[in-house]
Amino acid sequence: MPSPAQPSSTARLLRTGLTVALIAALAAPVTGGTAPAAAVVLPTGFQEQVVFTGLNQPTNLEFAPDGRIFVAEKGGRIKVYDDLADTTASVFADLSANVHNQHDRGLLGLTLHPDFPTQPYVYVLYAYDAPPGQTAPYWNDNCASVGGTNGGRCVVTGRLSRLTASGDTMTGTEQVFVQDWCQQYASHATGDLAFGADGMLYVSAGDGASYDLVDYGQLGNPHNPCADPPGGAMTPPTAEGGALRAQDLRTPADPTSLDGTVLRLDPLTGAAAPGNPLAASADPNTRRIVAQGLRNPYRFTVRPGTSEVWLGDVGWTRWEEVNRVANPTSGVTNFGWPCYEGTGRQSGYDGANLDLCENLYTGDGQTAPFYTYDHAARVVTGEACPTGSSSVSGAAFYPAAGGSYPTEYAGALFFSDYSRDCIWAMLPDAPGGLPGAANRRTFGSAAANPVDLEMGPGGDLYYVDHAGSVRRVRYFPGNQPPVASISATPTSGTAPLTVTFDGTGSSDADPADVGRLRFEWDFTNDGTVDATTPTATYTYPAGGPYTARLTVYDTLNASATQTVPIQTGNSMPTAVIDTPDAGFTWAVNDTISFTGHATDPDQGTLPASALQWRMLLHHCYTLDNCHTHTLQDFTGASGSLFGPDHEYPSYLELVLTATDSGGLAHSTSVRLDPKTVDLTFDTSPTGLRLVVGATEQATPFTRTVIQGSSNTVSAVTPQTVGGVPYVFGSWSDGGGQSHVITAPATPTSYTATYAPQSGSVRLPQSQWSVAGADSQETLLVNGRPNNVRDGSSSSIWHTQRLLSSPNHPHWIDLDLGSTRTVNRLYYLPRQGSTAGRITGYEVYVSNSRSSWGTPVATGTFPNSAAEQTVTIPPTSGRYIRLRTLGAVDGSRWATVAELNVGVPG
Q: Which residues form the F5/8 type C domain (predicted)?
C-alpha cells in the first residue's frame, strides 16, 4: 500500500470528549428505551431500532426458543434478557477469570443447543488465559512482562466448553470439550459456533499467527512456542509454523492442530461427529476437521435446513472472502490460506518459497471463495459504503419462507463488514436457490460496528454493535413509524436544575408525515403528558434520578419513544489525562506510561478506582480510513504498556473514563502517533520484484514503517525481466532469501543481488540424495538406487522386471534437501550394454512426493552410450522424479548408471 504523509502536528495528539457510544463501551451506565438509530441508511421501508444498550464490548447474540436472548461480552460475561422488552439483563455466567481479554482475544463464540431449554446447554468458545499446559488465570489480561500481546511471547490457547443452564444462571462447572488452537499472536483467535440441520456442532477458529508479517513460525523469542514441526526456529522451505498451521492437516506425520479450521463435533462429547470425512484417522483432531486453510473465520452461519457452512474469512491486505463448505461430510475443504488469499496466490507467502505452499500450487487442491471483495473496491457499484479498511464480520441467512421482509430477500445471505460499517444482502438467483455472488445489494450503510448478525423472532435481522448495543432492523410495508430523537442540556447538576429539551431531530421517512409529527413530553416518566411542543424546558427539584420521555406520533398515530436520564444533586465529573504530553511519539517496545485524575463538583477528587483506561489501536488503510482494536483495559490512576509491533499506517488512542458514585461518566482521549522511518528496497539489477510484508512490488520502492517494527522481506526467485531469467544471490544485510528486518531509527536501504540464469551448473552430489525408487534388481549386487550418485558408471540402478506386468513404468526420486531451481537433468546409461537402456521418459519437479502434478519434461533418449541431457524450464522444487517409459529391448526395465542435477548458473 502507498505510504501516506505524516500527520500534521495538530493531528498528532487530540484530546476530546468521547461519544455516548464509547462511554457505553467502557461500561458507563446508559438508560433508555428502544431508541431508533438515525445514522444507518437502509432500503425504503426498513428501520433500525436499538434493543439493548449498556453492554461492554458485546460480541455474539443468540435467541433461545423460549424467547430469552443471550449476549456474550468479550471480557467473558454472558448476559441474558427475558425478552425484547427487558432492559435489565441477568448475568448468566462470568468466565472472565478464564478468558484472556486483550486485543482481539476474548469470548467470541456462543450458541445454544437447538432443543434449549429442554437440553439446557450453552456452548462457548474463547481465548483461554494461559499458554499450552498452563492454568488460567496465567497472564491476568496483562502481557507487559513479555512485550505485550503482539510480541510473539504472550501465547494462549483456545477453549470450547459446554455450560449448563438452570433458569437464568449457569449451574455446575464448565465442561471443557476441546482445548487447542495455540495462539502466538493477538488476533486470528477462536471464532464462531453454530448447529447444523444434522444436529452437529460446528466450530471455527483462526490461525493464531501474526497479522503484520509473513509468519511461518520464525517469529518470537523464544522461537516456536507452539511447538510446530519440524521444530526449533523455522526456516523455508520446510517450516510448518505460524500461518501454515492452517495447512497442518496436510502434514500427517505429526499431530494435527486445529488452527485455521472448521470442526464438526458431537455436541454431547466434543469428539468428532459421526460421518466426518477423516473419521478413520487415529488423530482425534484430524477426525474433527471438515475445512482448513482459513485465516480468521470470525463469523459463519449454517444455511437453514442444511449443514452447509457459509463463513466470512477476514483477509490480510487486499481480499475479504465469503466461503462455502458445501458438504461437510464429503471431504475436507481447503480454502488455501496462507498460500492463497482471495482467488490468487498470497504474494508474501508465495515469495518465501515454502514447501507447503509450493505443493499446493502444484495441485494439492484449493477451493476458491464463493465470493471475494477487494479492499480497494466497493461491494456494490455506486454505494455509500466506503472502501479501504475492511474486515468481514457477520453472516446470517434470511428464512426461505415466512419472514416479514419483501419476498426477494427469501433465502438471502446477509453479510457485514466491521471496518466499513456496512451490511449487504446476497440474493438468490432463483427462488429456493443459492445466493448469487453477483446478485448483491447494499442493505445498510453507516451501520454501527457490526460484529455479529442473527435472524431473530418474526423474521427480523439483528446485529451486535461492538460499542455496546444490540440492534434490530424491521420492515414496515405500509406506514413507517417516526424516529424519536432527544437533545437535553444539561443532564445533570445541582437542584433546582433547568433542562432544555429539543425534539426537532425526530423524523419520519414517509413523505406525508414530513413536518407533521406530534410531540408528547413526559419529563418525569410518570405517565403524564407535560408538554406537546417540539422544544420545551423543565426545572427538576432535588431527588431523582429522573427519566424524561419523548413520544413522537405521525399522522396515522404510529409512534416512537426515546428517553434520557436526568440527575439532580449530582454533577458530571471531569477526567484529565496528565501524561503523556502533547507530541509524545513511540517506537515498538517503547514503554508508554500514562497518568490521570478526575475531579467531581460534588465529590471532589475521585479515587483511583473510579478511573478506567482503554488503549485503542487504530489500524488504517490510509490515515483517515481506519478500524479499531482494543489492546488493553486498565483501572487506576496510572499504568503502562509497550509500543505494539504493527504495520503502518496505524496509531494509538488512549481513553480515560471517570465515573462518579452516582454513575455519571466523562471520557477524554489522547492520540499517540508512532515514530516512523523510511526503508528503501532495490535489486541489482534494478527493476526486479521483491516482497515486503504482504505485497510484491518492482524495485526501487520505499515503505514507511514504525521504528523497531519487524518486517518480513523475500527475494522472489526465480523471476524473468526483459526476457532474462534471474535467480537470487544475496541480500545487502546478509539475510537469507526470506528473512525479518527490524526497522532501525534512521532511513536505511536494502538491496537484493540477483544473477542471470545464463546456463547450468551441476549440483554437487553431496547436496542431493536418492529419496526412493519403485523397485530394484535384487539379483544384481550393484543394482541399488543410490548407485546413480556414486560417481561410477559401472555401478547402476537396475529395476526389477515385473513378470506379471513387464511393461510397467519405473521411477526414481531425488531429494535436493531444500527448494532449488532446476533446469537440467543429466542421464548416463549403463556402460557396455544396450539391454534395458531407457528410451522414453518423463521428469517431474515438486515440493511433495505425494503430489507431482504434470511433467516438466518428456522425451526419448537415443540408443547411445553417451550422457544425455534433459532440458527443463527453470522450475522450483525439492524433489525430482525420473519416470521411465521404455527401453531398447522392449522390457521396460530401467537401467541408470549415473544421474546429475543441473541448476541455473
A: 749-905
Residue 675: which region, alpha, beta or left (left: phi > 0; alpha: psi -120 to 50)? beta
> Do strands 492-493 and 559-568 pair parallel, antiparallel, or not at all (unpaired)?
parallel
DSSP for 469-517?
Answer: EEEEEEE-SSPPP-B---EEE-SEESSSEEEEEE-TT-B-SSGGGTT--
Q: What is the DSSP letter of 405?
A: S
Section 493-497 average pLDDT? 94
Strand order in the sheet with 319-325: 299-302, 309-313, 319-325, 371-374
Dihedral angle of Cα 110, 114, 116, 118, to the nearest 10 degrees: -150
Q: Are 493 and 47 in contact (CB under 8 A)?
A: no
Q: Is 164 exposed, middle or buried (0-12, 13-18, 19+ CB in 10 A)?
A: middle
Torsion 356-358-364-365 (CA) sign? positive
- Using alpha carbons only, how large is the chain's radius of gyration in Å? 32
Q: Residue 301's pLDDT band (boundaries 50, 70, 90)?
A: very high
Bridge partner list, 345: 340
The upper half-sphere exposure of residue 353, i.e. CA atoms within 13 Å in the direction of its Cβ, equals 26
Least confident of 26-30, 337-341, 465-469, 669-673: 26-30
CATH architecture entry for 761-904: Sandwich (2.60)
Hey, which residues does 810 pair with through a beta bridge? 884
Q: Is the pLDDT of residue 435 over 70?
A: yes
Architecture of domain 487-568: Sandwich (2.60)
Identical fold between 487-568 and 574-674: yes
CATH class belonging to 64-229+256-338: mainly beta
Reply yes or no on whether the pLDDT at 725 is more than 90: no
| Average pLDDT in the chain | 90
Instruction: Specify the range with the lowest mean pLDDT, choosing from 74-88, 679-693, 868-882.
Output: 868-882
Are the C-beta atoms of residues 63 and 71 closer than 8 Å to each other? no
CA distance 143 to 220: 14
| 381 against 830, higher pLDDT | 381
CA neighbor of 73 nearest in space, from 468, 380, 484: 468
pLDDT of residue 20: 28
Average pLDDT value for residue range 557-585: 95
Residue type, 692: V
Q: Given a cut of 60, is residue 895 above it in pLDDT? A: yes
Quick check: 179 pLDDT over 90? yes
Domain covering 574-674, topology: Immunoglobulin-like (2.60.40)
pTM of the model: 0.83
